[in-house]
Amino acid sequence: MRVIAVSTLVASASLLAACSGQGNYTREGASLAKERMSVMKSATEWEMGRQAFLAGDLNKALRKVDASLSLNESVTKSHVLKGRILIEMGELGQALKSLHTAEALDPKDPDAQYYLGIVFERLNRPEDAAEHFMAACELDDYNPAHAVAAAEMLVDLDRAEEAREYLLSMPMAGDNAGIRQMLGHIALIDGRNEEAVKYFSEARLLAPDDAAIQENLIRAQMLVGQHAAAELNIAALRKNPANADRRDLKLLHAEALLAVNRPVEARSIYQELLSDPDMASDVSAWIGLGNASYMVGDQRTLRKAASRVVALDPSSHEGYAMWALCHRRDGQYEKALTSINQAIERSPEDPSFHAAKAMILADLGRTAEAVQSARTASRLAPGDSGYATLVNQLRAGTYASAPTE
Q1: Closest Cα partner for 328 from 354, 307, 299, 287?
Q2: pTM summary value
Q3: Which of 22, 57, 83, 161 has the fewest CB atoms inside 10 Å of its own CB, making it the most exposed?
Q4: What is the rounded distance in angstroms from the CA atom of residue 391 to the CA atom of residue 397?
Q5: Cα–Cα distance between 386 and 403 in angstroms, integer?
């Protein structure tokens, strides 16, 4: 009996030990399962926050990302998402805090660096913004947004040449539309308009459906005198229903049509624009209408345009120049001389006004004064042979006015 009792006790002890070990294992498994569930819930809350952010529901997005962080605060992308939400809400200080936390958790995360750059840009700290954008680019040098953002900050810091070299050093510089577009902007800033046309043309080939690039190309083409090409591009752009009512494109189209000697079409666009009450005070549209009307011989509309420009902007030379053209065509040379003198008072360095004055003085038979005005025009524009020719014609007595002048 004693032997049986001892055996029973040993067996019981062994069973208790086994049960105790199994309990520890069960508790450890339960803990791991709970941790996995927490991670899954955190990821679910993050995804719901991201979806709400993309949908524009910032308050819901913030609640969800906070819920995600309460379950797991060591996830870099959660702090980045919170930073992005706070940027959109205008809470830049709090956004900075979240993004710095993300940066501390993972110094090699390009998104944390990029959005830190965004915050510093909005805080008007371009040096800091450029530093973080470049850091993001180093971590992910195949993301053109990082490189372009860095270049924009360098341009803001008056370091355009450095921005240009930086962009050209990028591995995707030759085949990315955004980078070619930014290079075009830098070329315009430096006055290299022909180069800008080249870059914008390349960008357009890489992204043919990007309307912003097409507009950049058009404006660069206008600057270098490629008016026919610009007009074709504007006409194509205006066929898009989204651009049907854009006044800026209509004005640009009319300007291009004037430049390619299609004043009738240009005049129609200007008249359409000015029929809108909201455009009734647009000086540039009235100036364009006056130019088109002069070219087609529409004296009535030219008078109206000249009168409106002078009334809307008395300090501008444009209205008085139009009055001079109008009076001269009507044979009212003294009035034309008064008007061109008023234009010269407001823009004394414009050689075309001095040339116009020379022609009006010639009409009045005041040849010596006409020669002097033509010489002034030639001095102001030494590279323009037309003014020198006018001087010689006036001196030789061979100048004869023509309706197209």
Answers
A1: 299
A2: 0.77
A3: 22
A4: 10
A5: 17
Give me the average pLDDT of each 10-residue run along the chain (405 residues): 48 49 54 60 87 94 92 92 95 96 95 96 95 94 90 95 94 92 96 96 94 95 96 94 91 96 96 92 95 95 96 95 95 96 96 95 94 95 91 84 47
- Residue where the block lists tokens 């020198």: 388
CA distances from 211 to 181, 184, 234, 251 (A): 12, 15, 11, 17
Residue matched to tokens 């205006």? 238
Contact 89, 61 (CB under 8 A): no
Nearest CA to 178 out of 221, 212, 153 is that of 212
Separation between Cα atoms, residue 268 and residue 254, nearest integer Å: 9
CB 187, CB 195: distance < 8 Å: yes
Q: Are 42 and 71 in contact (CB under 8 A)?
A: yes
CB environment 95-119: b (16+ within 10 A), e (fewer) = bbebbebbbebbeebbbbbbbbbbb
DSSP letters, 231-246, are: HHHHHHHHTSGGGTT-
Q: Give the H/E segment covering residue 299.
A: helix 299-312
- CA distance linking residue 379 with residue 371, whole number of Å: 12
DSSP 195-208: HHHHHHHHHHHH-T
Contacts of 130-133 spanning 24+ positions with Cβ under 8 A: 130/154, 130/157
**C-alpha to C-alpha distances, 155 to 43, 98, 129, 284, 345, nearest whole angstrom:** 40, 28, 12, 30, 37
Q: Which residue bears the tokens 């992308």?
A: 77
Closest CA to 390 of 405, 403, 371: 371
Comparing C-alpha atoms, which of 285, 211, 215 is closest to residue 255? Answer: 285
CA-based nearest residue to 224, from 250, 249, 194, 191: 194
What does the alpha-carbon distance between residue 359 and residue 340 come to, in Å, rounded to a whole number? Answer: 11
CA distance 300 to 275: 17
Structure tokens at 395: 């001196």
